[in-house]
Design brief:
heterodimer, A: alpha/beta, ABC transporter transmembrane region fold, Rossmann fold, 2 domains, 6-stranded mixed β-sheet, 4-stranded antiparallel β-sheet, 21 helices, about 60% helix, elongated, B: alpha/beta
Chain lengths: ~625, ~650
């Protein structure tokens, strides 16, 4: 399953309200809601660039060093042909070779070559380091950001899309930087260097070259404009395809069981075909920049050749020698080449920009409201919980909970009973402040939860959800998740009380066996046992159990039940319950229907009252 | 890489050949440019006339125009071929993933498969495009220069050859050394994806335990790890350009010195040395470009290997050799009579008569062990289920219940014994047909983005609205679907997260019911349902079976896997499992008397008082499924209608 924890009561249309216009609603396997476009950035190109430079700031040292190294290396490289030319001047003809001049010249040449190579290496190394460290920082920041986002945001966006921003887009930014920076720096310095050398030979000719070069830049930017929009298209479809694969490969086993593969493949092919059209277009348009600027350069070369020859022949506008023409031609070539290279990396830079925008859109999304400045810490929570007149809805048009009032004294046990979708799970979302109430108050130990620091509030709770979440890590680490400094003895003790010890011991490396993502081959029951052990270990004041025992091994269920009874002693507990024993043992049963509490009382009281609970009880537990 | 080219390049052969050829023509024009300029100087400047200069300039412009046409043609072919091949590779990969066994799916994992089908194919695509566009250009310039240099002087050419060999060796070494780095970079990228994914899917647990900081550190560590590898790889590959530059210009120095000696004794002219040096720099420039290509191709070959790894993975469950089954009318029955007679096509009536006597499901001494496991996950199971009957499979966690039923639609093949569906060994069925006859609701309720309709028609794309509503009614899902503004066309988000767990479960049950399966397997699928809905579901299924039988169709058999006694007690046959063994087989009443483990299970679920109540015993097991549940649950079903 792609997203086991996405299940929230009846979140019916939360997502669509959060992400208006998301592709998710458009139906059919051919139009899956892969990437959602709601998370868009309105940043201008300049702003994106500014933000990127901000990201580089921590690595300013490498940044400046690479720039300096690049400048030195390029100047040395430009000096090499001049030394080679002087060397050739020493070798005129038979018997006219000046070895005494050639020897020191060659030594000088070797020094320059070694220097150029060394600085080129420094530059390459710095840029590489800079790029990957920036990618790392971006990833870390984006993930940090996700951990500060409200749950409603995470529920409301395709996980594949969020993931792709953290993983792929950060990479794209890095690639763009890597390629872009290297070539851009060397290109810029080469341009400046050659310009200087050209001016030193002939000012009018240099002016001619400078005047015609913008042609090259114009052509390049025109092509870039063209290909930019097709790039955005390609990225979008690529994202949809990624979302599709993520989703369907995620439930590939189900697809297999239903022999639905052909249909899924059809949907994939439709997207794949779209991607071909967009990708082919984007690639063709962007690949025009190289030959395009090369063609312009050839034209410039022809103009310089003609102008140069005319200068030699007529002496107007400036006198020039044949050797001068040759030098100029080679420098004209040198001068336009960096433009070529810079336009060559434009596609990369464009992709990096598109990705940077998507990344910044995530980083700029509004975060979970911070704790109130006067928020209190819950020290040693006693576990009294009071809900007074709580209203809540995921979408304003569909009220879900109405006027919920519950008062739980420390140590009391509440069973929530009612048909699916009546708001039981939502109550858990509110108690832990995954969502905030629309009206009314929830008080823990007499303090409004809105005024309690979230972390301290959540530490007071222990939660076991319907669908158990395990991460890739050892069994020990999975159990010790809530108490990472727990000793092996504590972990084993918790596992024993959760009846998870025996099957963990049976694993190849016992508690050190690495459990794959989503639990791998563990049955749901075993996964849940691990999650129960996890809560056992943290020893919270208040327990929230969402059908916790529904798929536990029936044979050990009684024992787990006893362990729970023990754990629940002295702790306030809310249980979304289906088990008769749980319900019977509750201090208070809350019968919910359509977001309201319609009956409350003990098992015996409610049976005697002969209302909805009595009806439910007789239908479920006496004849089932 | 070559494997991929060979397999997918076929239909793009023209582009793969003509593209580089066009590029070559552009290169040739590039090479001609200096000759034209020489003509302009010699003929124009030499005679002091402007005409040849202008002519030369015109030729240069014309060549530029023709060159760009060829270049455009090349770029077009490159983008067509690379994107086209990328598209075919993606298609084949996905097709192959469809055929992979569940064990292989576990081994690769979703994030890795997703990366392979997206990023890796993109890398390969890029390499193909660059291959067409540039692979010919730069080596051609390099080789052309070498040939020209050797033609001038073989001895000086030796310096050229040696230096190129050094550079070539350097490339080979760096390429070799980089491949493992790129592989490990990809693996580390997969890990980053995994951590982000876990963080998103487990967001509630993470926050409930206040472990955001830990999750942030985990990702930061993984990102740092990946960056460190990338930087190490970069350190290696960033040596290429400077060292190439160094070697080539040191060679130029050597040529100047050795050339100087030659010129001094009259063996060479100054012009020849100049030409030699310019060819050397020409080759140098080309090799630097080749170096950049090497990086792209190294990355791509790592990606190609990852793509090939998936493509090379042989699916363990295939329908090789299976014949399509002769279907009986719309009911999807095998020609049981034909099998019995060993030939001929009996009339429909006879088939129908025969088929009702053929068990829908038969397990004959079935054992199964997971690959590499020492013990059997299912050991020596034998049972028979007739059309219309219900089989309950009950047992503890890890007792082999789910494994047992996963042998029926051939998610795995039994290691011993035979599984028969409608009288035919499952290995003799075509997979697609088998899985159409068998409807399965897996443990986890999975929905995909789309609409309710698109999620329901998996088994039968042609299902009508009536069919869908019938399935929804049976699955106790009709009410809440009806309450949605768009009904059947209401949107479903990725993972079905806009529905509650119970709603998703009911939708997945409805999905299995569309297309009238002859064998319905509910693999612990009612666990997310409350008792009331669970009971209503069982009543609905029972009446559905009766209706089917009454209308002359083959009534579906139902297999219910559960840990709840309540879910299986009405079954015609209950199979009690423990540690892979069938430890009890019979009706509820029989097992309550004879099977110790079953008694224990009953006791743990507080059903002991009811089992001894005389009111329950008086119904024969077969009727139990239909009648006993009804009185109470009709009411509750009604309730559900009002409140769901």
């Amino acid at each position: 399953m792609a997203n086991p924890y996405g299940a929230v009561g009846s979140v019916a249309t939360v997502a669509s309200s959060i992400s208006s216009g998301a592709g998710g609603a458009s139906g059919g396997p051919d139009a899956p809601g892969g990437r959602d476009d709601s998370l868009k950035s309105a940043l201008s190109t300049g702003q994106v660039l500014g933000r990127l430079i901000g990201c580089i700031r921590p690595h300013l040292g490498s940044f400046l060093l690479s720039f300096a190294a690049s400048a030195i290396s390029v100047v040395l490289q430009l000096y090499v042909p001049i030394l080679v030319g002087r060397g050739i001047d020493c070798i005129i003809a038979a018997g006219r070779v000046d070895f005494s001049a050639l020897a020191p010249l060659l030594l000088q040449l070797i020094a320059v070559i070694v220097g150029a190579a060394a600085f080129q290496w420094v530059q390459g190394y710095c840029v590489n380091r800079l790029a990957y460290e920036t990618v790392r920082d971006l990833r870390t920041q984006a993930n940090d950001k996700l951990s500060r986002m409200p749950i409603s945001f995470i529920d409301g966006h395709a996980h594949g899309d969020l993931m792709s921003r953290v993983v792929n887009d950060a990479d794209q930014v890095g690639d763009g930087l890597l390629q872009g920076l290297t070539q851009f720096f060397t290109g810029a310095v080469t341009i400046a260097g050659t310009l200087a050398f050209m001016l030193s030979i002939s000012v009018p000719m240099a002016v001619v070259v400078v005047l015609v070069t913008p042609l090259s830049v114009l052509v390049a930017s025109a092509i870039a404009r063209f290909s930019n929009s097709s790039f955005v298209d390609q990225q979008r479809i690529q994202g949809q395809l990624g979302g599709y694969v993520e989703e369907f490969v995620g439930c590939q086993k189900l697809v297999d069981v239903f022999a639905y593969g052909d249909e899924v493949l059809e949907g994939f092919d439709a997207l794949n075909q779209e991607l071909y059209v967009a990708g082919e277009r984007a690639q063709f348009l962007s690949s025009l920049s190289n030959p395009g600027t090369r063609a312009v350069n050839n034209v410039i070369y022809a103009i310089v050749a003609v102008m140069g020859c005319i200068c030699v022949i007529t002496g107007w506008p400036a006198a020039l020698t044949v050797g001068g023409v040759q030098t100029f031609l080679s420098y004209a070539n040198q001068y336009t080449k960096p433009f070529n290279e810079i336009t060559g990396v434009i596609t990369q830079i464009q992709a990096a920009f598109a990705s940077a925008r998507r990344l910044f859109a995530l980083m700029d999304a509004p975060e979970e409201e911070p704790d109130a400045p006067d928020a209190v810490e819950l020290d040693e929570p006693r576990g009294s919980v009071e809900l007074s007149h709580v209203d809540f809805s995921y979408v304003p048009t569909r009220p879900l909970l109405r006027d919920i009032c519950v008062h739980a004294e420390p140590g009391q046990r509440f069973a929530l009973v009612g048909p699916t979708g009546c708001g039981k799970t939502t109550l858990i979302n509110l108690l832990l402040r995954f969502y905030d109430v629309d009206a009314g108050e929830i008080r823990v130990d007499g303090a409004d939860t809105a005024r309690i620091a979230r972390d301290s509030l959540r530490r007071a709770f222990g939660m076991v959800l319907q669908e158990s979440w395990l991460f890739e890590g050892t069994a020990h680490d999975n159990i010790a998740y809530g108490k990472p400094d727990a000793t092996r003895e504590e972990v084993v003790a918790a596992a024993e009380r959760a009846r998870a010890d025996s099957f963990i011991r049976a694993l190849p490396q016992g508690y050190d066996t690495v459990i794959p993502e989503d639990g791998g081959t563990f049955s749901q029951g075993q996964r849940q046992l691990l999650c129960i052990a996890r809560v056992m270990l943290t020893d919270p004041a208040i327990l929230l159990l969402d059908e916790a025992t529904s798929s536990i091994d029936t044979r050990t269920e009684l024992q787990v039940q006893r362990a729970f009874d023990e754990l629940m002693k002295g702790r306030t507990s809310f249980i979304v319950a289906h088990r008769l024993s749980t319900i019977r043992n509750a201090d208070c049963i809350l019968v919910m229907r359509d977001g309201e509490i319609i009956e409350r009382g003990t098992h015996d009281e409610l049976l005697a009252a002969g209302g909805a609970y009595a009806e439910l009880y007789t239908s479920q537990f006496t004849h089932a | 890489m070559f494997k991929l080219l060979k397999r997918f390049g076929g239909s793009y052969r023209a582009n793969l050949v003509l593209g580089p050829l066009c590029k070559l023509i552009e290169v040739v024009f590039d090479l001609f440019t200096p000759i034209i300029v020489a003509y302009m100087i010699d003929a124009g400047v030499g005679t002091r006339s402007v005409q040849p200069v202008l002519t030369g300039g015109g030729i240069l412009l014309a060549m530029a125009a023709v060159a760009i046409l060829f270049a455009l043609a090349c770029q077009k072919m490159a983008s067509r071929a690379s994107q086209g091949m990328g598209t075919s590779i993606r298609h084949s990969l996905y097709e192959h993933i469809n055929a992979l066994s569940h064990a292989d799916l576990d081994r690769f994992g979703t994030p890795s498969l997703t990366t392979r089908i997206t990023n890796d194919v993109n890398q390969v695509q890029l390499a193909i495009a660059l291959g067409i566009r540039q692979l010919m250009r730069w080596p051609f310039l390099a080789v052309g220069s070498l040939v020209a240099a050797l033609a001038i002087d073989v001895r000086l050419g030796l310096i050229f050859v040696v230096s190129m060999a050094v550079v070539g060796g350097l490339f080979w070494f760096v390429m070799k050394a980089c491949i493992p780095y790129y592989r490990s970079m990809q693996a580390k990228l997969d890990r980053i994806a995994l951590i982000v994914r876990e963080g998103l899917s487990g967001v509630r647990v993470v926050r409930a335990f206040v472990r955001e900081g830990h999750e942030r550190r985990r990702l930061a560590d993984a990102a740092q790890d990946q960056a460190a590898t990338a930087i190490a790889a970069g350190r290696l590959s960033s040596v290429l350009n400077p060292v190439t530059f160094l070697v080539m210009y040191l060679a130029v120095c050597a040529i100047l010195w050795a050339g100087g000696i030659q010129v001094n004794i009259g063996g060479l002219t100054q012009g020849q040395v100049v030409a030699f040096v310019s060819y050397m720099t020409q080759a140098l420039l080309s090799i630097v470009y080749v170096a950049n290509l090497v990086v792209v191709f190294t990355k791509a070959s790592a990606s190609a290997a990852r793509v090939n790894e998936v493509l090379a993975c042989q699916p363990s469950v295939t329908d090789e050799g299976a014949e399509p089954v002769e279907l009986w009318g719309s009911a999807g029955l095998p020609d049981a009579a034909e099998q019995a007679d060993g030939g001929g096509l009996p009339d429909a009536a006879k088939q129908a008569g025969a088929s009702k006597r053929v068990p829908t499901l038969a397990l004959r001494n079935v054992s199964f062990a997971y690959p590499g496991a020492a013990a059997d996950a299912v050991h020596d199971a034998t049972l028979t289920l007739m059309p219309g009957q219900t089989l309950g499979v009950i047992g503890g966690t890890g007792s082999g219940k789910s494994t047992l039923v996963s042998l029926i639609p051939r998610l795995y093949d039994a290691t011993e014994g035979a599984v028969e569906v409608l009288g035919r060994d499952v290995r003799a069925w075509q997979l697609k047909q088998l899985r159409q006859v068998v409807g399965m609701v897996p443990q986890q309720a999975m929905l995909v983005s789309g609409t309710i309709r698109s999620n329901l028609i998996w088994r039968d794309a042609k299902a009508t609205d009536d069919d869908l509503w019938r399935a929804l009614e049976l699955a106790q899902a009709a009410e809440f679907v009806r309450a949605l503004a768009d009904g059947l066309d209401a949107p479903v988000e990725a993972g079905g997260k806009n529905f509650s767990g119970g709603q998703r479960q009911r939708l997945t049950i409805a999905r299995a019911l569309v297309g009238a399966p002859k064998l319905l397997i509910l693999d612990d699928s009612a666990s997310a349902l409350d008792y009331k809905t669970d009971a209503a579901l069982r009543v609905a299924l029972a009446s559905y079976g009766r209706d089917a039988a009454a209308s002359g169709e083959l009534p579906p058999a139902v297999v219910v896997v559960s840990q709840r006694v309540a879910s299986v007690r009405a079954a015609d046959l209950i199979c009690v499992m423990r540690r892979g063994n069938v430890v009890g087989l019979g009706t509820h009443d029989e097992l309550v008397r004879t099977c110790a483990i079953y008694q224990e299970i009953c006791a743990s679920q507080g059903v002991e008082d009811e089992t001894v109540s005389p009111g329950m015993r008086q119904f024969p097991p077969a009727q139990l499924s239909h009648e006993t549940v009804s009185p109470g649950t009709t009411v509750s079903r009604h309730e559900e209608v009002r409140h769901g």
